[in-house]
Target: AsnC family transcriptional regulator
Amino acid sequence: MQLDTTDRRILKVLQTEGRISNADLAERISLSPSACHRRVQRLEHDGYISGYVALLDARKIGRPATVFVEITLSSQSDEVLDAFEKGVAKIPDVLECHLMAGNADYLIKLMVEDTEDFARIHRRYLARLPGIAQMHSSFALRTVVKTTALDL
Model:
């Protein structure tokens, strides 16, 4: 399915206002409520909309620090990669983990309370992951840009 201009307008609004009512969305993009509802259902069914979430304020829940961890594995074999990925998927504090091209094999993103909280996560989980040859951690000093919205 190709996205037309109306689909893109729907997606732009829903990315920033996921709780907007169908009636308000329909009015905003100049469609009837029934046509708008059908389009949103089709966008969901076709996988353009993968879900709806509440975005939490990490500071308010006590996790103001962002940490990025670069992992280099001892080998690129399928067994080592699979074992690492299964292990990292079980860590409750991991927000994102990406297989990378470049200096590191994986990049992990965490939100932590402070350095002591990160040390706990490191000892309990990260240091026990299989296949790690090197690990480098960096604390973000300030977030300059943060969005979940894709440019359409």
In short: The mean pLDDT is 97. The chain has two domains: 5-45, 65-139. Helices lie at 5-16, 22-29, 33-45, 78-89, 115-124. Residues 33-45 form the longest helix (13 residues).
